[in-house]
């Protein structure tokens, strides 16, 4: 039986994507070859890469607006340093909303000064700071749109003349935004876009070329752009499965339609968290994430019973991040509303039993 998969990443992907992806391992495009054994320079794969790059821009509404899409390796964590390598001349502004921002800041400091414009570390990253000031002498502003570990999400982004860079690893393709307000968007595929092994990077090309340092080839966005994301062997299978997921999204109404579903799922679960006296939300209400809902048991004595109940119900991956504890329900695009109903039913069953 298929589990109700709440894993935070790698995570649930659509069943039809799994079916098509497994077929391609046996015989890709009726070629008599597996996708795992063909050259990345073959026409079949060059077409995959091109469609993946184009479709990511199409879904974000960024076609013909000076953006380029790349599928790179090294995870979102590699982007923490690549961004600074390519864009940080003297000083950059970072908003610190959690563990991932903190890691991004650490890497940027190898290349220049970092101004932390605001931080929610004082309250265990339970909220998103607002009303901060971005200095005029910085090279760019960096933020994390969704904080996977704490379950907070930025609902608004600051307007600034400086390039805005956003780590969207855990909410890419989940909601409509004016994506042209960002100059660089990046996302490790394994949260909401595909399997682990590739990272989507969408860059407005005109922000590149201003740093004076020499940049090693693999770190240089311009080289990857010039080579159409094929400077070296890309993560062929991860890019292919990401493409299948993007096609699935497009065929199901794109970001607009999935956003409505995501809102429904989040509302269903958060209402239960708020109504059920046995549970408590972790993040500030106004900053709650639609993707990752974090919550705790008011009385830890019920932990064993609750854990048994949700495991019996076929739920997987509900434990909170090791640094936060409690529970985390990751409700990425491919998670059906029915799975959320199963969790909510288990939570009310616990209330009846307790
Ligand atoms: C998971 C995650 C990362 C790290 O991604 P890797 O691909 O493992 O390097 C970075 N930022 C956010 C917001 C994440 O959720």
TrEMBL record:
Q: SUPFAM superfamilies annotated for this entry?
A: PLP-dependent transferases
> Which of UniProt's keywords are assigned here?
Amino-acid biosynthesis, Aminotransferase, Cytoplasm, Pyridoxal phosphate, Pyridoxine biosynthesis, Serine biosynthesis, Transferase
The signal peptide, as residue positions, is none
- Residues that bind pyridoxal 5'-phosphate: 76-77, 100, 148, 167, 190, 232-233
Tell me the ranges covered by the Aminotransferase class V domain, including all copies.
5-343
Q: Which Gene3D superfamilies match?
A: Aspartate Aminotransferase, domain 1, Type I PLP-dependent aspartate aminotransferase-like (Major domain)
- Identify the residues that bind L-glutamate: 41
Quote the catalytic activity from the record: O-phospho-L-serine + 2-oxoglutarate = 3-phosphooxypyruvate + L-glutamate; 4-(phosphooxy)-L-threonine + 2-oxoglutarate = (R)-3-hydroxy-2-oxo-4-phosphooxybutanoate + L-glutamate
Which cofactor does the UniProt annotation name?
pyridoxal 5'-phosphate
Give the PROSITE patterns listed for this entry: AA_TRANSFER_CLASS_5 (PS00595)
Q: Specify the superkingdom.
A: Bacteria
Localization: Cytoplasm
Q: Does the keyword Signal apply?
A: no
Give its E.C. classification number: 2.6.1.52
The similarity annotation says: Belongs to the class-V pyridoxal-phosphate-dependent aminotransferase family. SerC subfamily.
Q: What does this protein do?
A: Catalyzes the reversible conversion of 3-phosphohydroxypyruvate to phosphoserine and of 3-hydroxy-2-oxo-4-phosphonooxybutanoate to phosphohydroxythreonine.
Q: Which NCBIfam families match?
A: PRK05355.1 (NF003764)
Protein name (record): Phosphoserine aminotransferase
**Organism annotation:** Salinimicrobium flavum
Top-level taxonomy? Bacteria, Pseudomonadati, Bacteroidota, Flavobacteriia, Flavobacteriales
